[in-house]
Design brief:
about 375 residues; mainly alpha
Length: about 375
């Protein structure tokens, strides 16, 4: 949002500002935003997260998976993604309003207000209890049982507590979780920790959220938040695999339609002339349907599924791999997108549609079913895996 504001570009990236505003009708419109320096400003944030993920052993999805009742683990973990989509939507609205400030100071407020959720997180974290898993790992079994009773709201937790203790005992047999990831018995977990975040970024969703105009980003941001609600109410009923596959089919169809629409009007030089309203509306509708498909499948499931399929003994290591891979490819896509758009034109949507097919086949063939299975018994799922 900030990089779309002219006063910000004028101050920090005058070359980009001049290029955008002095473009001639004969120039290729697909290449007007191609600036590696400007994209590095945004994508550098993901490198910071990448560095942080190497040292962090816990994250929101892991924490939620450990404290949530297994019957509602999917829905509760989806609230993580819902919070993200609401945050994006609020940021879109604020950016849109701040961009209209006549004094040109709106970008100050956009960047400054990012501190507000950080303060909320710091204060909120002070009131979070340790997860029972974490307490058992640190030798505080009695306190772990007390926390489990408090979290579940019942004294009838003996069976679950025994499962937690048994899983913890098994995890202690693994002294070096990072090196253990290379062993054959943990290869499925390492594969998922790499493949799922890789594919999540190659859905092409970030291309739309990063580079939508301020107005259209409000529309897609609203669709994103609303569609995430669908996944919250359906994930524990229909299962993860079905949502993955349905969302993949929806995104694939929309990407082909958008590619055909842009190709027919913009051609290879990016000069559409005067666009009729019906055309613009059609493209926005299909983008919203595409965003909805992502928001109830690969968006939230890309965080939920890795957090619940890893065994306790390698969970922190695999989750760090998961976040690292996610950030590496978020950075890569953010950094090269404008160049890809300049060279591939409307074919860029076909490029991402191809990956949607590949990732859907991967999910269909390899992802185990985890619906209704407690996180402590996930090892049984892998033992019974057909491949």
């Amino acid at each position: 949002g900030v990089t779309s504001m002219d006063p910000f570009l004028k101050k920090f990236f005058p070359d980009v500002y001049a290029k955008e505003h002095n473009i001639k009708p004969t120039d290729n419109q697909y290449c007007k935003f191609d600036s590696q320096v400007l994209t590095l400003f945004t994508s550098s944030l993901y490198l910071a997260v990448l560095v942080a993920s190497i040292f962090a052993s816990k994250s929101v999805p892991i924490y939620v998976s450990e404290v949530a009742p297994y019957k509602y683990r999917g829905a509760l973990n989806m609230l993580f993604q819902l919070a993200i989509t609401i945050g994006i939507f609020v940021a879109n609205i604020l950016n849109y309003l701040f961009a209209k400030m006549e004094n040109g100071e709106g970008w100050h407020y956009s960047l400054g207000l990012a501190g507000v959720p950080a303060i909320i997180i710091i204060i909120g974290a002070m009131f979070l209890p340790d997860s029972p898993n974490s307490l058992i790992e640190r030798g505080q079994a009695e306190k772990a049982k007390e926390e489990l009773i408090k979290i579940r709201g019942t004294n009838d937790v003996d069976e679950e507590f025994k499962d937690l203790v048994a899983a913890s005992e098994a995890s202690k047999q693994v002294k070096h979780p990072w090196s253990s990831l290379l062993k054959s018995e943990y290869r499925p977990h390492l594969t998922m920790a790499i493949a799922i975040p890789f594919f999540q970024q190659f859905t092409g969703m970030n291309v739309i959220t990063f580079y939508a105009s301020l107005m259209s980003s409000m529309i897609t941001g609203g669709c994103n938040a609303l569609a995430t609600l669908v996944s919250i109410f359906t994930v524990d009923k229909v299962g993860r695999r079905k949502l993955f596959l349905e969302g993949g089919a929806q995104m694939f169809i929309c990407q082909l339609v958008i590619a055909a629409a842009i190709g027919s009007k913009f051609g290879t030089d990016g000069n559409p002339g005067v666009l009729p309203k019906w055309f613009a509306l059609t493209v926005v509708v299909f983008i919203c349907v595409y965003v909805a498909g992502f928001a109830w499948s690969w968006g939230p499931l890309g965080w939920l599924v890795p957090s619940e399929i890893f065994l306790l003994e390698v969970r922190s290591a695999t989750q760090s791999v998961n976040v690292s891979v996610n950030m590496i490819f978020t950075f890569a896509i953010a950094q090269v997108f404008t160049s890809m758009l300049c060279h591939m034109k409307f074919g860029l949507f076909i490029f991402f549609a191809f990956f949607v097919i590949v990732m859907s086949i991967f999910i269909y063939k390899f992802l185990p079913k985890t619906k209704g299975i407690s996180i402590e018994k996930i090892s049984l799922v892998w033992k019974n895996h057909p491949y």
